[in-house]
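[09:14] KT: can someone run the structure on this one? pasting the chain below
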Amino acid sequence: MGDESKALVGSVIVSIGTIAAAIGSTPSNYIKSSVRDDLSIIGNILQATGNGIDADVEGTVLRPVGKLIGASGNITVTSGLVFDIPKEASYKLFIVGNLLQALGQGVNIGDVIDLTPFPGQAENIVGSLTSFIGNSLQAIGWSEALYDIKGDEKKLSYYEEYLKKTMVSESESLVATGSWIQAIGTVISVIGVVKEVSGVN
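[09:31] RB: done, structure tokens below
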């Protein structure tokens, strides 16, 4: 597989994985929580795979570094989903994983900005920046969720318990919003790679 094909296949796999993970992170009465967890696991595995393929494309030193940092973030998030560990430890892994993904995107932004202008460069920058924002929001959301766990230790009234079960929390909203912003960013990045490969401005 040539470099252009690797770049395109890698970015498409990342985008599909991000969309799957975004569906998994979105609170829903129509999708079971177990199915949502499975989507999150599959989505993060696909993202790690796509980033791994993309890291093998020839380019500057920073390109594979950014992609591999992102992949390590996806693996960290997946670890929090698959291992039977306390909820608090899982949330910490989600925070670290999303921060690693954001860092990987930041490295990629720096790399692309420094290159000679090429077709799809603007989309690559905007897509990576959008994904960076999305991952950062997810990290904030999981930090809020971690804080909420500590709040669970105090006794809640019946009404507070009811609200907690029936309403979407601020942390869930942040995570879901961040996931979809990241997904939008990956789609923009795919458009950039298509333009780069085809040479169309």
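[09:33] KT: thanks! The two ends are 24 Å apart (CA to CA).
[09:34] RB: yep, looked fine to me
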